[in-house]
Specification:
Elements lengths: L19 E2 L5 E2 L21 E5 L11 E6 L5 E6 L6 E7 L2 E6 L16 E5 L6 E2 L16 E8 L6 E7 H5 L9 E11 L11 E6 L17 E6 L5 E9 L5 E9 L27 E4 L26 E7 L5 E7 L6 E2 L12 E2 L5 E6 L2 E6 L5 E3 L8 E8 L5 E8 L2 E8 L11
Parallel strand pairs: 1-24
Antiparallel strand pairs: 2-27, 3-4, 4-5, 6-7, 7-8, 8-9, 10-11, 11-12, 12-13, 14-15, 15-16, 16-17, 18-19, 19-20, 21-22, 22-23, 23-24, 25-26, 26-27
Keywords: Signal
Pfam family, one: PD40
InterPro entries: 6-blade_b-propeller_TolB-like, DUF3748, WD40
């Protein structure tokens, strides 16, 4: 059994204009001699007072022992969760009164060490002890609502009812002669608990969890079939999730496009397609899940969405999805597409290329990102970029650039000595002649 402590929960480049600088003073929020890593979004408390983070030395190393939060104005730090001595935790996000984060297996063994198909989510509300987020069942008979592997990077839907994540499958990753293990998007109903028979030592009870996207080992060239689904982000209606799907071009080349999956209200199995799959087949999406391709960039000189920097197709409050792609001159630019599909709109001209993930302002008017060593925002109506912090070396990291829920601050990370520290900057921008607007 997991020993779970009580959680203290969170109560332009412009196509037609210049890059506008303004003099601001970024404020360092953390100072402890340890790593501090923000998730790419949903790391602020609802009242914009606190930041959630973990203590990994770097996002590529899963070695954090605690989930913490810091009060931005005072610098006061609270520990929300401490992992067992043989485990690690990280990537916390929150929505309302729910916090979710990632855990590695405790007491790892050679056949059950940290891996994408061995990690799992944890969740809690105010005053609760954290519980396992996603149920897991590894031995027949498999259990509907329990998957057979690991989840990662959990985000709560805007209405608080469901949690999205990526998923990889232990049975397929470690078996032979089976379909390939491929990353997909999963969805958990955390209040709908699933009890597992514990026929395997790594089985665990948890929330009702299903895969939401369909993949295939060999997508038909030129079709909408995908080999993997990744970088998921909720749409504002809490019924749909945007994600990147890896397709095959007419010549068999691999690249990714923007997709959306519509979710049913309740997860029930389609005839002949058990949610849990079988020991030799993948889990299946629930009946009513509908996967739709929004972009068709395969014929361009640089097909598909940009592979780097790592980013997510996040949506504005109005349902406009932002993503990055390279133009014919190989410049990295912001693009927008409606949640229902349609033409792609180029937003920036590529003079300042994004080097980080990005987030929307709560009013949907701007995107925050790191570019050219600065925290920047781009005005969605005009495409004008404002540089909020002066270029620095080392500058803000590529991990995160996150608007606060009240729209007044942007949080980011920057290396100070040997450690990544958390910073915030005023999100107000300057007008065409430099005056605040």
């Amino acid at each position: 059994m997991l020993a779970l402590p009580l959680l203290v929960l969170l109560a332009t480049d412009a196509p037609a204009g210049p890059v506008a600088p303004r003099q601001v003073t970024p404020r360092q929020v953390t100072t402890a001699a340890t790593g501090h890593v923000l998730a790419n979004r949903d790391c602020w408390s609802a009242d914009s007072r606190w930041l959630l983070y973990d203590l990994r030395t770097d996002e590529t190393v899963f070695d954090g022992r605690r989930i913490e939060r810091v009060e931005v104005d005072s610098g006061r730090v609270e520990t929300l969760y401490e992992a067992p001595a043989t485990a690690a935790c990280g990537v916390p996000t929150g929505r309302g009164e729910r916090v979710v984060f990632l855990r590695s297996p405790a007491e790892p063994t050679p056949d059950w060490a940290y891996a994408p198909w061995h990690r799992f989510g944890m969740t809690a509300r105010r005053g609760e002890r954290p519980t396992v987020l996603d149920a897991r069942d590894l031995a027949p008979p498999l259990t509907p609502g329990a998957l057979r592997g690991g989840t990662h990077l959990h985000t709560v839907s805007p209405d608080g009812r469901r949690v999205a994540s990526t998923y990889e499958d232990h049975l397929l990753a470690t078996g032979t002669g089976l379909p390939e293990n491929r990353r997909v998007v999963a969805v958990t109903w955390p209040e709908r608990r699933v009890a597992v028979s514990a026929d395997h030592p790594r089985d665990q009870d948890g929330g009702f969890t299903v895969v939401a996207t369909a993949v295939t080992d060999e997508p038909t060239p030129g079709s909408d079939e995908i080999a993997r689904a990744y970088s998921d982000a909720w749409l504002p209606d809490s019924r749909r999730i945007a994600f990147f799907g890896e397709v095959r071009g007419a010549g068999g080349e691999a690249f990714s496009e923007v997709f959306v999956v519509d979710l049913p209200d309740e997860p029930t199995a389609a005839p002949g397609r058990p949610l849990e799959g079988t020991p030799t087949t993948r889990p299946n999406p629930p009946a009513g899940a509908r996967q739709t391709r929004l972009t068709f960039i395969g014929a361009e000189p640089n097909p598909g969405v940009a592979a780097s920097p790592r980013h997510w197709p996040v949506s504005s409050p109005a349902g406009e999805i932002a993503f990055l792609r390279r133009d014919a001159d190989d410049r990295l630019r912001f693009c927008l597409v409606d949640r229902r599909g349609g033409p792609i709109r180029w937003l920036t001209n590529g003079r300042i290329e994004p080097t980080s993930a990005f987030t929307w302002s709560p009013d949907g008017a701007r995107l925050a990102f790191v570019g050219d060593g600065s925290v920047c925002t781009v005005d969605v109506a005009s495409g004008r970029v404002d540089r909020l912090t002066p270029p620095a070396e080392p500058g803000p990291t590529h991990h995160a650039c996150v608007f606060s829920p009240d729209g007044t601050q942007i949080a980011y990370m920057q290396r100070v000595g040997a450690y990544d520290q958390l910073f915030v900057v005023d999100a107000a921008t300057s007008g065409p002649e430099g005056e605040a607007r």
